[in-house]
Amino acid sequence: MNFATPEFLLFFPGLWLAHWLTPGHRPRKLLLLLGSYYFYACWDWRFLGLIALSTAIDYSAGRVMERTGSARLRRAALVTSLLSNLGILGFFKYANFFADSLAALADSIGFPVGPVELGIILPVGISFYTFQSMSYTIDLYRGRIPPCRDPFDFALFVSFFPQLVAGPIVRASGFLPQLLVPRRFDPRELGLGLERIARGLAKKVVLADSLAMLVDPVFAAPGEFGALASWAAAIGFALQLYCDFSAYSDIAIGAAQTLGYRLPENFDSPYLAESLTDFWRRWHRSLSSWLRDYLYISLGGNRRGTWLTYRNLLITMLLGGLWHGAAFTYIAWGAFHGAGLAIERWLRERRGGSDAPLLGAWGTLRTFVLVTIAFVIFRAGSMADVASMWEGMTGLRGLGGSEALRWSALWLCLPVFATHAIRGHEERLGRAVISQNPLFRSVVLTGAILGTIAFWRTEASGFIYFQF
């Protein structure tokens, strides 16, 4: 079920009302679990069994770890959890990719095998709930969280509908404790949550989907456009992706807030980052922190010498790229960022650990340009299209004439930059607006609602991160 559809606008108020009218904490949780399963079944009911299987494996692994005093059995339970989750994820997400790659390799060395048609459908959201469920068994094995003894609580943690399909990736340590405390209705939290939902819908419908109309024609035929259109499409996609993905996070966080639950923030003005390192502290924070805590640190982090640190950065970002999709473009995108992080670290070490030359306005501009260039790899359909887009961006095909109109359409990006500019003062400004000028807040909210209605399309486009 897509947030930006009439179906969700009927489903969510009904579930919200039923939740708060249901007496008792446990019945409310069971209602949310059923609602979450229904939400996912609206996409394809056949894959409910996959969520249930992943839930059962990790819950059982946790129970084994709790009950046994044997270090070997605890390790075996963890390995079973990891291999099962990664095996399921690998099969559904990468089997087609590897089969096609092996077929292409065989063709290239003179052993044609013909097209490989496995017909495997990628379950929506599998990358998110798999990582989420794995965080529980890893943290439990490390002794950082207590075991979850209620299977229904654990099932709700894995399948909670607001962030089920596209995050934020929730840690067991942050969500399971909330399930132990009865939720109490708070009108202020309801208002803030609805405001967050309205802002997210406007960001998606008004900005992201409008920017898509600027971006898609250029990426569909990258060899036909000059520098103005190529740069406009590259910048437009960077902002479209932010508006689209952060809009989903806004709606997810707002929906959970109206139900009394807190989800982690996923973005922190990423395009104000002063370095690539800073960018990854701000962009898709729930994934970047997951990769840091469970992959980078497990590989040794920066504790085993300079060259191994560079290796760990590259491996982490390569696998982070592969997490996004089974394509060479995602691997190349991860390699781009891994190499960039390693180079930044090398420059920092050459300067005695100082970041000063990398920061400031010049650092922000340089980082945004690098991130935009890298997002071309992320968006393009093939590495050949990447090369064609970069060729256009260098001006080798000229500036373009009427394409200037495409560049001028980037006025749509101004609200994104304005949001970024005030982000650091958002909490202070928010308190001032709430306490001193509620009329201003009402005008902003009304504008978001009217903009969403005005730009609403009969066939809503899916969120970009649904494909991951």
Describe the structure.
- This protein has 468 residues and is mainly alpha-helical.
- It has two domains: 6-183, no CATH class; 188-467, no CATH class.
- Helices cover 71% and strands 0% of the residues.
- The chain is built from 20 helices and no strands.
- It has helices at residues 6-21, 25-44, 48-67, 71-108, 126-141, 151-159, 161-164, 172-175, 187-220, 227-258, 276-282, 285-299, 306-324, 328-350, 360-379, 383-393, 404-408, 414-423, 426-436, 438-455.
- It is globular.
In total, the number of strands is 0
Low-confidence segments, given as residue ranges, are: 424-436
Radius of gyration: 23 Å
Domain module count: 2
Main sheet makeup: none
Percentage of residues in DSSP E strands: under 5%
Number of helices: 20
Q: Give the helix/strand class.
A: mainly alpha
How would you describe the oligomerization state of the chains in this entry? single chain
What is the helix fraction of residues, given as a range?
over 70%
Shape: globular
Order of helices and strands: HHHHHHHHHHHHHHHHHHHH
Report the end-to-end length measured between terminal Cα atoms.
15 Å
Q: Average the pLDDT over all residues and give the rounded result.
A: 83
